[in-house]
Specification:
It is built from 15 helices and 13 strands. The protein is an alpha/beta fold. It folds into two domains: about 15-45 and about 260-345, no CATH class; about 60-255 and about 350-565. InterPro entries: DUF1501.
């Protein structure tokens, strides 16, 4: 378990991390950020208290590798469809004389994934005004493998935000892009590692220091999460990431299978360390009534071994390093108890009470909804949300990740006119769509859907034109792409932002003729709407997103980005 297991640590003794932070504040500019966030915490505390301690969870679904969202949300009629087919190319399994990566209308019809417009005239509109389409009454669809997303969209529980990407300033055009100074363009465009970091930090024109999820936790942890024994506000179920790096707060990192169980040694999660509520943690009473309800340990060799270990952990050490080592181990044990307690709420023998939702969501796909890694990540997040009463959090930020989107080759291979569900891109869409549906049903079943919002992010979308004209073709690194937001507070059945006109070698194709769309919505604008729903006040947004003021206010009709009920 990592050091940052709970939202606060015992700071009565100096430690290496404190020393490094304090000694490098001036060089890294951390002091200003800490002071600003601390001040805003004080300002926000009274407002949070008056508003009540409502629970909210924000789930970042990162599509690692650059998801080709040109095929996630696509036109099926009108001018946009003409541009789509000519730019992407018809795949060979439809026309043997051609090669491309377009999704044929035949596949859309067979899967039934045309999404329903909000109104009767065929445009996808927002209450603040017309958005999203080119005015010709185009109809839209989602990828055939994403049929659950169609269901969620039509049920007004999911929306799309068109053409989002990293930007350092507005008004970037095809005409001025080459002449712009390097300082006015995101550095290392089309680079996986750079664009991932910039997406997760929202500050592409500065060296990386923190992620916008980490800054959210820095600001809101002291306002909404006041229990010093609560789990960290941020939890990653897929390793360390830039998004959850804070100035003060750091994530709790765990696996999709949960925490390591010590049940074989006798201890249990609901009756963890006897001194769980004490700070600092002193004494374990390891030998009190072994094998009874008043003991943490079974009366067995394994139980006695764990008791002896924790008795040693409870000792005081003259050496700061020895004491620090023991404190980390104790912190990890207590955290395992917290997380295990939360997971016990949905435990059901060798299964969980949420399993059926994921099994049903994946039914008929050939993919096991219980063993698929991404589904396991989403199920773990759902279990922690449903079991939140054991974690003492009022705000939580989760990170999950689905990789494999770097589809340079064989994005839509010829499969002799048989079912194409085993191709890599199609399979990824199935995994994404089904896991999101299983997650939604789990949270809805627990009555918490209005308190949870999940959103997607990715390195970038991919080039509109394929890199080959045969079945081995794929798409390369692009720029602006379409994102999804899902939850009970989402203004669903809408496409927000500005859908690109899909004109290759013109329009918003940044350069050349590959169809790399200049984003019309910045990551700052997109993330700010999510942050405001999560509890950040209008006067606090600039502390989280220092570049936000450069762009159109996302909460005005002109931005076409009011995709959350609570902030519309």
């Amino acid at each position: 378990m990592n050091l940052f297991s709970r939202r606060t640590l015992d700071r009565s003794q100096p430690n290496r991390r404190d020393f490094m932070v304090q000694s490098t504040c001036a060089g890294l500019g951390i002091t200003s950020a800490v002071n600003t966030l601390a001040h805003l915490q004080l300002v926000g505390t009274s407002a949070a208290q008056s508003a009540g301690n409502d629970y909210k969870a924000l789930v970042c679904i990162f599509l690692n590798g650059g998801c080709d969202t040109n095929n996630l949300l696509l036109p099926i009629a009108g001018t946009a469809r003409t541009h789509y087919e000519s730019g992407r190319g018809i795949p060979q399994y439809i026309d043997a004389s051609k090669g491309g990566v377009a999704i044929p209308l035949e596949d859309i019809t067979a899967a039934g994934t045309q999404i329903s417009p909000l109104n009767a005239v065929g445009t996808y509109e927002h209450a603040a005004g017309y958005i999203g389409q080119d005015g010709s009454g185009n109809r839209m669809a989602v990828h055939p493998g994403a049929y659950h997303l169609k269901t969620l969209f039509d049920a007004e529980e999911l929306c799309f935000i068109s053409n989002v990407g990293v930007l350092t300033q507005p008004n970037v055009t095809r005409a001025n892009f080459s002449a712009l100074p390097i300082s006015q363009k995101p550095p290392q465009l089309f680079s996986h590692s750079d664009q991932q970091t910039q997406w997760q930090s929202s500050i592409p024109d500065k060296p990386f220091k923190s992620g916008w999820g980490g800054r959210l936790a820095d600001l809101l942890d002291g306002i909404h999460n006041t229990d010093p024994n609560a789990l960290s506000m941020m939890v990653s179920v897929n390793g360390f990431n830039s998004f959850q790096v804070g100035v003060q707060q750091q994530p709790y990192v765990m696996g999709s299978s949960g925490v390591t169980s010590f049940s074989g040694f006798g201890t249990n999660y609901t009756n963890g360390l006897l001194t769980l509520g004490q700070q600092p943690y002193t004494g374990y009473n390891a030998f009190a009534n072994p094998g009874t309800a008043n003991s943490n340990y079974k009366n067995s060799n394994a139980g006695w071994r764990l008791a002896a270990l924790e008795q040693m952990l409870g000792m005081s050490h003259a050496s700061l390093f020895d004491q620090g080592y023991a404190n980390v181990a104790k912190s990890a044990r207590v955290t395992e108890g917290l997380v295990g307690g939360a997971l016990s709420i949905t435990a059901n023998g060798s299964a969980t009470t949420l399993d059926s939702h994921f099994v049903n969501a994946f039914a008929g796909t050939g993919i096991d909804g219980l063993t698929n890694n991404f589904a396991q990540q989403m199920r773990m997040v759902a279990r922690l949300i449903v079991g939140n009463s054991a974690l003492n959090n009022k705000r939580q930020i989760f990170f999950v990740q689905l990789g494999g989107w770097d589809t340079h080759t064989s994005q839509i291979p010829v499969l002799n006119n048989v079912a194409r569900t085993d191709q890599s891109y199609y399979s990824l869409m199935l995994q994404l769509s089904c896991a999101m549906k299983g997650f939604r049903d789990s949270i809805q079943g627990a009555g918490m859907w209005d308190n949870v919002t999940a959103f997607t992010a990715s390195d970038f979308t991919r080039t509109f034109t394929p890199n080959k004209t045969d079945a081995t073709g794929g798409s390369d690194h692009g720029w602006g792409g379409h994102m999804m937001v899902m939850g009970g507070a989402v203004r669903g059945k809408r496409i927000f932002g500005t859908y690109p006109d899909l004109t290759v070698n013109g329009g918003i194709d940044v350069q050349g003729n590959r169809g790399r769309w200049i984003p019309s919505t910045s990551v700052d604008q997109y993330a700010a709407v999510l942050a405001k729903w999560f509890g950040v006040g209008p006067d606090q947004l600039s502390a989280i997103f220092p570049n936000l003021s450069r762009f159109t206010d996302p909460f005005t009709p002109a931005a076409k980005l009011e995709f959350m009920d609570a902030v519309a």
